[in-house]
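Troubleshooting: if your tokenizer reports a length mismatch, compare against these two reference records.
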Amino acid sequence: MITAEAVSTSALLLNVFVKLGVVLLLIYSGAIYLRRRQNSGHPLYKKQIQVLETTHLSPHRALHLVKVGDQTYLIGATDHNIQLLSQLESPVFLPEKSDGFPAPSLPVPDFATFFLRSLNKVKTKP
């Protein structure tokens, strides 16, 4: 036979676990909310490095247009090396791809000169 004291003890234990679950759920959801709010909105948490565009040349080689602060760099990346190819003098503005117009070309003469110069350096190495 189940006594009234046994029922009240199990009800009390169930009540404690339910309240503990609610408190843990509130703590977890509060931590998620604060993490999301911390990463966006505040000027001190603004990212200083942005990858503006990436073009893959082959499976293990890519060109990246990277903005660091106010400077824009064109870098080449492989599996084993990252190389600065050019520092762009003028700011690069990339239009949205949904407007139907082609993206403006990068300053090709500076990049081509630097690229050909770096190719010549690679050919001279044994």
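Reference record two:
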Amino acid sequence: MPNLESALTNVALLWLLTVPHEFAHAWAATRLGDDTPRLDGRLTLNPLAHVDWLGTVLIPGLTSLFGGGFLGWGRAVNTNPRKLRGGLNGMALVALAGPASNIVFSIILALAAVFLARPFPAAANFAAHGVTLSLYLALFNLLPVPPLDGSKLLLALRTPSFIYNELARAGFLVILLAMTVTPLGRWMYQASYLGADRIFSLIPVRF
């Protein structure tokens, strides 16, 4: 049965979480000497600079609406490995910056949920749901399948280019099958819920 409330919540949260994720990629690349993200206008916290209408709105909305798991992404940040200090290793660091930002942001959302629990319970519930979703996005993006961030680790490990290119051609299909046919999506959600519980358990203050 379609769940409109869940779909709207997930899309709204994805918009919120996409901004620090993509900004983190742009910031890390800039710090490593690549000015491509800055020239592309990606070194900003403006959500419109990072949204991909298909990946940030349509696909996550439909998958959430019809209970098909959750798929979503922002607009990829372009980098130039030849400008990055460390080359492919630098690219791996840039890739990891995105999921790392999701983990940091999940802690921020957990703190917000705790402080808003009494005065604004609806906002607290929204933030609490965001903790789980942010951790889920960190795990999802670490999958070693192009174009996800985890695939850059394959490049850093010097995976032969023909293998990487073949994987990239079928990347979206591989991700779709993995999330819908295998229990991978359920496992990542379970891990995200456990992670969220752990974060909340470490917050000493309750309101």
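Descriptive notes for reference record two:
- The chain has a mean pLDDT of 90.
- Residues 4-201 form one domain.
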